[in-house]
Write a structure and sequence with these properties.
The complex is a heterotrimer of chains A (121), B (478) and C (518). Chain A has 121 residues and is mostly helical. Chain A is built from 4 helices and no strands. With 478 residues, chain B is mainly alpha-helical. In chain B, strands 1-2 form a two-stranded antiparallel ribbon. Chain B is globular, with a radius of gyration of 21 Å. Chain C contains 20 helices and 5 strands. In chain C, the strands form 2 sheets. Chain C has a 3-stranded antiparallel sheet. A two-stranded antiparallel ribbon of chain C has the order 1-2. The longest helix of chain C is centred in the middle third of the chain and has 33 residues. Chain C is globular, with a radius of gyration of 22 Å. The chains are: A mainly alpha (121), B mainly alpha (478), C mainly alpha (518). Chains in contact: A-C, B-C.
């Protein structure tokens, strides 16, 4: 395997790194500095940050639950890509297998839904 | 007759289930009659090997493990089988006159199954199975019905016996896996193992049996177990349980591994004579009745082992009759010791003085048993010891001559300590502990009488034992 | 790069041969749907019925395909003698364990809660611990675990094996945390098992990578070929093998990968402990045997010393530490560790000049031990006081007076563990040691015999305690078991007895099955 294949990728990564460094440093020197409370707080998707309990505290387990559910369905999507790409080659067998796969994930989804996993409180 | 072989095992096993003293006594009686009946219709069945069972039963059980349900009785095992069933019967009868539920009697029956099974087994693996069955009920008897220090004594018993079992198991493994069969008849007839394997296996097996017998220096569990065990436990322990060791040595270790036996025999002989001397000397210093009898067992079993170690027909005969005599006499002695301890609540010799004054019959029987045990000619104890010494002398050579002389000296020690025992216990003025104690009750007399009679009968007519055993011993001697 | 669009060669799949695990996975999925849609009151009977029916169906299918000897699913799964024998074993032991799991008469609502992760001691946890109609999640979890175990023992390449490992491990982690009583202990057990299990899985996966690096293949037959023909550095192979072995020996609870066992056995709900002790052992040793003798037979000689050392360590540590235990569940855990050692002796007896006694006797041992241990933990569930099970040994003093029947049963099972003749413990140890001796492992046999004597002591101590001590003020009562536990106890004890008295049929079966396909 020739290393030459990797040169564009390495180049791209270098470019990205340089750009990020440049933007952050440039903003520091060129932009206005007018801080307020919201700007100084931790960034949480623009939502008012949840007050942290004293001593660091714990996150409610619900966050992790949501994150895990997200990953499960995310993986499902990722798995669909290669199947879609070689759909013709896999034929009916692949189709049925994929239905089974989606079906199983759906069962899990139904369980989560019915047992209140999607309710926040 | 093969059904009798099974019945002798099955009747006590079934009897044990009921956990009732009356049923136990009945089952033990039937088992005794059945075992006596084993002698009828005996023939060697045209067999030519060293083991020629009169009757045998050979059924495949677990071929995958080389395990066959192979039972048989011949002249060597027959006297021991009858001894076992007799002593169990006497113990069960004795228990009829005591308090308590039937559990103890049931355990005795289970022990009987194991011991009789050991004597009847003609398959090495089956032999091991029966050998193991005895362990737990005996443990329970000591730990459940024993005296004050019963727990440590029971634990010591188990520790030693399990240690022996491991060696036995490994020895059995070695023999079976090298020879490819576990059939004792075949194994004894064709010695197919190479000499080195024989030596290794013989050492394993003889240590295992020496623990059970017990041979000095592996005997230390015995005095504790005897001192703490209930009367019937002591009787069974001394009377027949120890015989599993000597029988195993004779039938399995010597029978299957003669080359190994030849090489180890001098060591065994030396240890046996050491046991005789040590047992005798320790007895001279004992102050506790049951411990004294227990140590005397060590000495007597030393004679038995000496007989086996000579590897001659005379020696085997000595071992056999010594086994039976020791079973009868020591059984009786432990019955008596139990009776005395029950009445006086002490086993201390110094507190038992003057028994003759308060309980003349009891002390009379004790004197009779003690004299029988020290080997007075005309009583059972004489033949085993005399033959063992003679066998060692006939073996010739300086070693065996010295051993014979020392063993004879040890026999004299037995006279010394038993006379000391009688002097301390029966003579003199009555001590407080023996005042007002009762004479034997009917239950005790019923249990003792057969032993008293047998001690005399075997002493006068040793052919009672040797007659049935002669052929078996002759063909067995290498 | 151009993607080829011609039809791929699809693997042949023998669905009938795979049906036992397919049935279990299917039923487990249905079980999840039942949890989602059935009313609370109806879940228990439906789940129990579904689990029982599917396990019986799986067993029936195992019997029906009993003569199959082939690789299927593109060589990823082997359906051969050992696989089918162990699948059948798993199904039967699974049924017995299920009976314990489903018992509800001992404790209102059964011994499980619904959600493992609720913080112990909180209001929410108290509420769920008092619910009578929840806690049926354990059934689908059990079925998933069993299905994963079946796949584990028949996996024929490393990745399938890894997937199966995860499929049966994850439900087990969860089930450990479901105890209704002593929630904190249960959660601790689950977390401990999970963390250490995750480590072990990572080792396993890392080992796969190494082996792939060496052989360029993950299929067992291909690895077997590669070991002879590959010119790669052997360091990769040994490193990979060692890491793989760590993953497997962890599940098998072999020393020094055993530290989780006592804590998890103690903390997990007792029916789950029973299930783990019986079935996880079967799965772990089934896979270990297959990996060693299908993929790595040509390095077996190098392995022998290492695994022999581990076997010795396992037997010695397990039996010696068992002596010092004061909790009956921990005692049984250490005895289970020691038994893993005896099984390793059996594993070492396999191989070389067509001797399959080792494999056959190991499989026999797994069956015999499984039945006894399920029944033993079944008795543990019965000895209770107001706080649930009373597992401290001092509480068992004098139990024989209170309940001779169950004390007698437990005694019998302990005698089986101690290897006393006429119990399955004797025949199975005899078979394993005999096979090991025949393949020249004399020193292992000697050590095995010695440690089994050491191990007899804690058992004897319990027997003495139960029978010869006076019952004290706080000797717990023995609950009258419901029909399900009774059935489980009866099956376990009967199997222990039968395999002790008439083991030949099963010995025949196991020796007929003792041949891997490669």
């Amino acid at each position: 395997m020739s290393l030459a294949l990797w040169v564009p990728i390495v180049g791209l990564f270098t470019l990205a790194l340089l750009f990020a460094l440049f933007s952050v440093t440039a903003a520091r020197f060129t932009g206005p500095h007018r801080y307020n409370r919201a700007k100084l707080d931790a960034y949480e998707c623009g939502i008012e940050p949840t007050p942290q309990p004293i001593g660091g505290g714990r996150f409610p387990v619900k966050f992790y639950l949501t994150a895990m559910l997200f990953i499960v369905f995310d993986i499902e999507i990722i798995f669909l890509y290669p199947w879609a790409v070689s759909f013709n080659a896999l034929g009916l067998f692949g189709f049925v297998e994929m239905l089974l796969f989606i079906g199983t994930v759906f069962v899990a989804y139904a369980y989560v839904w019915r047992r209140g996993g999607l309710d926040w409180d | 007759m093969t059904w009798v072989l099974v019945a002798v095992l099955a009747v006590p096993a079934v009897g044990a289930v009921f956990r009732s003293r009356a049923v136990a006594a009945g089952a033990a009686a039937i088992a005794f009659l059945l075992s006596v009946a084993l002698a009828t219709g005996r023939s060697d069945g045209g067999l030519t090997g060293p083991i020629r069972p009169w009757h045998q039963l050979d059924v495949s059980w677990v071929p995958g493990l080389n395990l066959r349900f192979h039972l048989g009785v011949d002249g060597i095992s027959y006297p021991l089988v009858v001894l076992t069933t007799l002593l169990t019967l006497l113990c069960c009868v004795y228990l009829l006159w005591t308090d308590g539920d039937g559990t103890l009697a049931a355990l005795l029956l289970v022990i009987e199954v194991g011991i009789v099974g050991v004597f009847l087994a003609l398959d090495l693996v089956l032999f091991f199975v029966f050998f193991e069955i005895v362990l737990l009920p005996m443990y329970a008897v000591i730990a459940g019905w024993g005296g004050a220090g019963r727990r440590p004594a029971a634990r010591k018993f188990v520790l030693y016996t399990l240690f022996g079992s491991v060696l036995l198991l490994v020895g059995v493994f070695v023999v079976v896996s090298r020879a490819g069969t576990a059939d004792l008849v075949v194994l004894s007839a064709q010695h197919m193992l190479p000499a080195d394997t024989q030596l290794a296996a013989f050492i394993l097996l003889s240590i295992a049996f020496a623990v059970k017998s017990p041979l000095w220096p592996l005997h230390t569990w015995l005095p504790d177990a005897h001192t703490e065990a209930p009367t019937v436990g002591s009787v069974i322990l001394a009377g027949v349980l120890l015989k599993m060791g000597t029988y195993g040595l004779l039938r399995v270790a010597v029978g299957v591994l003669p080359d190994g036996a030849r090489r180890v025999a001098p060591v065994l002989g030396v240890l046996a004579v050491t046991a005789i001397l040590v047992g005798g000397l320790v007895c001279l210093a004992q102050t506790e009745l049951k411990r004294l009898i227990a140590y005397s067992s060590v000495g007597h079993m030393g004679f038995v082992l000496l007989g086996i170690a000579t590897l001659t027909a005379t020696g085997f005969e000595a071992a056999l009759i010594g086994n039976v005599a020791h079973g009868i006499i020591t059984g009786l002695l432990f019955f008596l010791a139990g009776a005395i301890k029950d009445r006086t609540h002490t086993g201390d010799l110094s507190e038992l003085g003057g028994l003759r004054e308060t309980a003349p019959y009891l002390s009379g029987i004790l004197g009779y048993a003690a004299i029988a045990s020290l080997g007075l000619p005309g009583l059972a104890g004489f033949w085993g010891e005399a033959f063992a010494v003679i066998a060692a002398l006939r073996r010739g050579g300086p070693l065996w001559t010295v051993l014979a002389v020392l063993a004879a000296l040890g026999g004299a020690l037995a006279a010394a300590y038993f006379l000391r025992l009688l002097y301390r216990v029966t003579h003199g003025a009555a001590r407080p502990a023996v005042v007002g104690i009762g004479e034997p009750v009917p239950g005790e007399l019923v249990a003792w009488a057969p032993l008293v009679v047998l001690a005399l009968a075997v002493g006068l007519v040793p052919a009672l034992v040797l007659g049935v055993a002669q052929t078996a011993v002759q063909v067995m001697a290498p | 790069m151009i993607l080829t669009q011609e039809a791929l060669k699809l693997p042949q799949i023998n669905y009938v041969a795979l049906s036992p695990m397919l049935i279990l996975f299917g039923a487990a999925t249905v079980g999840v749907l039942v949890e989602a849609f059935a009313g609370r009151g109806r879940r228990y009977p439906v789940q129990l019925g579904l689990s029982l029916v599917s396990l019986v169906a799986a067993l029936v299918m195992v019997v029906r395909v009993a003569h199959t000897r082939e690789l299927t699913a593109g060589g990823a799964v082997a359906v051969d003698g050992p696989a089918l024998f162990l699948e059948g074993t798993l199904a039967v032991l699974g049924i017995v364990a299920l009976l314990l799991v489903a018992e509800r008469s001992l404790e209102p609502g059964g011994p499980f809660v619904a959600v493992a992760a609720v913080t112990a001691g909180t209001e929410a946890d108290r509420v769920q611990a008092q619910r009578r109609d929840a806690g049926t999640e354990v059934y689908p979890l059990l079925l998933f675990a069993l299905g994963g175990m079946m796949l584990f023992v028949s996996a024929n390449d490393l990745l399938t094996m890894f997937v199966a490992l995860e499929v049966f491990s994850l439900p087990l982690y969860l089930m450990c945390g479901l105890a209704r009583r002593r929630r904190l202990l249960s959660q601790e057990a689950a977390l401990k098992y999970f963390l250490l299990g995750a480590f072990a899985s990572a080792f396993f996966l890392f080992g796969i990578a190494m082996i792939y690096g060496y052989a360029g293949q993950i299929n067992f037959a291909a690895i077997h070929e590669a070991i002879q023909s590959s010119t790669n550095d052997r360091i990769l192979l040994y490193l990979g093998l060692a890491l793989l072995a760590i993953g497997l020996l962890f599940k098998a609870a072999a020393v020094p990968f055993h530290v989780w066992t006592p804590d998890v056995y103690q903390g997990a709900p007792t029916p789950v402990t029973a299930f783990m002790a019986a079935c996880t052992k079967v799965a772990a040793f089934g896979a270990l045997l297959r990996v060693i003798y299908v993929a790595f037979e040509r390095t077996a000689w190098d392995l022998r010393l290492v695994i022999g050392g581990i076997a010795v360590l396992t037997m010695v540590v397990g039996s010696v530490l068992a002596v010092t235990q004061t909790d009956i569940k921990r005692l049984l855990a250490y005895s289970s560790i020691a038994n893993a050692g005896y099984l390793l002796v059996g594993v070492l007896a396999v191989g070389g000049n067509g001797n399959h006694d080792g494999l056959a006797s190991s499989m026999f041992y797994l069956v015999a031990y499984g039945f006894s241990v399920v029944a033993a933990f079944g008795v543990v569930t019965l000895v209770r006081d107001a706080d649930g099970e009373a597992t401290h040994l001092s509480r068992w003093a004098g139990l024989g007076r209170r309940s001779p029947l169950y004390a007698g049963l437990f005694t019998f099972l302990l005698l089986a563990f101690a290897g006393i003749p006429l119990t399955s413990g004797f025949t199975s140890k005899f078979a394993v040691f005999g096979a090991a001796l025949a393949s020249g492992q004399a020193w292992l046999v000697v050590l095995g015999a010695i440690t089994s004597v050491i191990l007899a002591f804690p058992y004897l101590r319990v027997v003495v305690l139960v029978w010869l001590s006076e019952p004290g003020e706080n000797t717990p009562t023995v609950s009258i078991p419901g029909a399900l536990t009774s059935a489980a106890l009866a099956i376990g004890a009967l199997a222990t007895l039968l395999l002790g008295i008439a083991p030949q049929p099963l010995l025949d079966l196991s020796s007929r099955a003792a041949e891997f396909v490669r």
